[in-house]
Amino acid sequence: MSSNTPSPYTGRFAPSPTGLLHIGSLLTALASYADAKAHGGRWLVRMEDLDPPREMAGAADNILRTLEAFGFEWDGEVVYQSRRYELYEEALGRLKKQGLVYPCYCSRKDWQAAARMGADGFVYNGRCGKADYRPSEKDLAKTPAWRLRVPDENIGFDDEIVGHYTQNLACDIGDFVLLRADGFWAYQLAVVADDAEQGITHIVRGQDLLVSTPRQIWLQRCLGADTPHYAHLPLLVNRQGQKWSKQTLAPALDVSRKEKLLRQVMSYLNLPAAPEVERPSELLAWTVQHWDMNKVPKTAVCTETD
């Protein structure tokens, strides 16, 4: 629940085990760690393993081993979203009691065929949420998705890197899914429920998630949760301007090149060059000592040079 008492800084790094860590992951890990430790705060690690069909076998363990190899030490136990379904059930139950969600029987193919594009894909037209909608017997035989109603109003926030960002959720997004028809929990609900339960006060993550933030703020309000402070980091991109990811064949971090890779992402964050060190943890300490979010670039950084 929301409170008026400021909480101590608690940040987090929340990778998804759909692939191994790459250079973009390292930048997010380093920046979120440095911001937390520079504020005397805690840095948690959460494994966002919500989508088993997309996960890579062994990736979760590999991610933790890689973080350790690069000198990272997290506070507390690693949390796995796949073990927290009761938390998400409880949150959805509260939203049901408030009448803020509704079952959706639409097939993705059907509703998207008539939909317009918005800020993050197609905008759902709210068909199943209309007061006069009555599902057919055929619909009732299906397992529905559950959608959250969104307001026709601007929801904005001040990001520490990007500046002010706003969306009209009704126009830009539409009512969005919290529980998928296949039984898997949607990212938006899980991340909000977890951040609230873990007491996350500051979120430092990539700008690819900027578009999700107004949805998460609306969901926080619906659940009576505090809204964290946000800082969305520049994306690392290839020569074509594409974000480095599994889809763009981002190479996995090579632990035999730990120091070189850490120095590389430190330079992307505009940190001063560090002296010679004996172990990666000394580079992390240097980053914390010289951390300045105001110097972080506001736009994408190309990692490929001619």
UniProtKB/TrEMBL annotation:
Chain residues that bind Zn(2+): C104, C106, Y124, C128
Domain spans labelled Glutamyl/glutaminyl-tRNA synthetase class Ib catalytic: 12-252
One GO MF term attached to the UniProt entry: zinc ion binding
Protein name stated in the entry: Glutamyl-Q tRNA(Asp) synthetase
Gene3D superfamilies: HUPs
GO cellular component term, pick one: cytosol
Family matches, as InterPro entries: Glu-Q_tRNA(Asp)_Synthase, Glu/Gln-tRNA-synth, Glu/Gln-tRNA-synth_Ib_cat-dom, GluQ/Sye, Rossmann-like_a/b/a_fold
Keyword vocabulary terms for this entry: Aminoacyl-tRNA synthetase, ATP-binding, Ligase, Metal-binding, Nucleotide-binding, Protein biosynthesis, Zinc
Motif 'HIGH' region: chain residues: 15-25
Chain location of the short sequence motif 'KMSKS' region per the record: 243-247
Function of the molecule: Catalyzes the tRNA-independent activation of glutamate in presence of ATP and the subsequent transfer of glutamate onto a tRNA(Asp). Glutamate is transferred on the 2-amino-5-(4,5-dihydroxy-2-cyclopenten-1-yl) moiety of the queuosine in the wobble position of the QUC anticodon.
Binding site for ATP: K246
PANTHER family: GLUTAMATE--TRNA LIGASE (PTHR43311), GLUTAMYL-Q TRNA(ASP) SYNTHETASE (PTHR43311:SF1)
Family to which this protein belongs: Belongs to the class-I aminoacyl-tRNA synthetase family. GluQ subfamily.
Cofactor binding note from Swiss-Prot or TrEMBL: Binds 1 zinc ion per subunit.
Transmembrane annotation, as ranges: none
Enzyme nomenclature, EC number: 6.1.1.-
Residues the record lists as binding L-glutamate: R12, F13, A14, P15, S16, E48, Y187, R205
Cofactors named for this entry: Zn(2+)
Residues in the signal sequence: none
Gene Ontology terms: biological process: glutamyl-tRNA aminoacylation; tRNA modification
